[in-house]
């Protein structure tokens, strides 16, 4: 059968665009569809605009620090509208870049939501196209629980377009999106309540790093409402201020409620059942190590598969798929030792195993830590500390985990991720000369492992 395309991609985010461009570069006839804007979550309503808001919010602290360095400034004021609109302009620019990338690669863009009609047929906005192979890269979307008053809440999608900055905001969630936006709104001058179900933020990260971030958020003036769940949101005549009612009968007022309690794969309503594509219990598309679904000619990459939901991972998966299926260069995406960062204030970044994971998987380990006040704040007096951690497998001396909470953590850990990926040992770190004075030199000057507690008699028995 003659198909319209060798490959059709549903979803023009990072993974889909990368896969389509690489496949086209290998000579394939490629089409792609998108129902909103090309660029996906990261570029349009995620990591890129959010990082710009983080930059904007940090200036408040920089102005405070400047006085100790001899700068005299008039009390600064901030225009939310200026920041919001400038961020939107940058998103527009990047959207244009992605459109030109597709055009330059010879990929045909179809605007509209793609839906599988069968294993080789896709319907987009009333138009039908066929393809030999199909890639699903539809990403994920924020989820708001079904509680009374949920219609009054926003998600991160809407946070970039607020008509004005709220004086008070309640952010519900303890994950990376919640803590990042808590820092943003706090830095811009809003009173922030962070509402989380557990005792600390960032479940799944190294326990000591979680504690360091949690304490820093609290110290910055954010109200940490731990072990709390929202029962309902009550509005005043359908608008702010809102009364937030908790599960134990408590309540508090705020001007805006933002939910950041998780994201779900965009797998509903795209005809997966008609093509024989199965989803797992979490609603994500089930794939094998080659990103292939349960249909022989259909693959999926990125957040819709709910493996590691990071933009660079989606890029890797899409690139591997295209090289394998169209470039004659079979290779699997390597999900080991993927570095990541949370752009809270201060930042958290890591690569490799947490201490808890290392103890479970490797047995005997050595842990090196360092905690200090950054040199920059010795003059300004800002009460912010940096925490660093190396986890070493005792049997091999390999560094299996690097963790940091502090300024520029992401920039530092990105470089160290190369060392971890290459299998560097603690001896390699020790033999490396540090750059002085920097925070990064701490990673190569940790000499004494933390003393491990003696095993209990019960454990020994």
Task: Provide an overview of this structure.
This protein is an alpha/beta fold and 461 residues long. The chain has 3 domains: 5-142 and 264-326, FAD/NAD(P)-binding domain, CATH 3.50.50; 150-261, FAD/NAD(P)-binding domain (3-Layer(bba) Sandwich), CATH 3.50.50; 346-450, 2-Layer Sandwich (Enolase-like, domain 1). It has 13 helices and 21 strands. The protein has helices at residues 14-25, 40-45, 47-66, 80-105, 156-159, 176-187, 207-219, 311-326, 355-362, 377-380, 409-421, 426-431, 457-460, and strands at residues 5-10, 30-34, 108-111, 114-116, 121-124, 127-136, 140-142, 168-172, 191-195, 223-225, 230-236, 239-246, 251-254, 257-259, 263-265, 298-300, 340-342, 348-352, 365-372, 386-393, 399-405. β11 (230-236) and β12 form a beta hairpin.
Features:
FAD/NAD(P)-binding domain; alpha/beta; 7-stranded mixed sheet; Enolase-like, domain 1; disordered C terminus; 461 residues
End-to-end C-alpha gap: 69 Å
- What would you say the CATH architecture of the largest domain is? 3-Layer(bba) Sandwich
Approximate helicity band: 25-40%
Low-confidence runs (pLDDT<50, min 5 residues)?
Answer: 457-461
Tell me the strand percentage band: 15-25%
Mean pLDDT: 96
What count of helical segments does DSSP give? 13
CATH class of the largest domain: Alpha Beta
The CATH homologous superfamily of the largest domain is termed FAD/NAD(P)-binding domain
The tally of structural domains comes to 3
What name is given to the CATH topology of the largest domain? FAD/NAD(P)-binding domain
Overall number of strands: 21
Instruction: Label the overall shape.
Output: globular
Summarize the biggest pleated sheet.
7 strands, mixed
Indicate the radius of gyration in whole angstroms.
24 Å
Structural class: alpha/beta
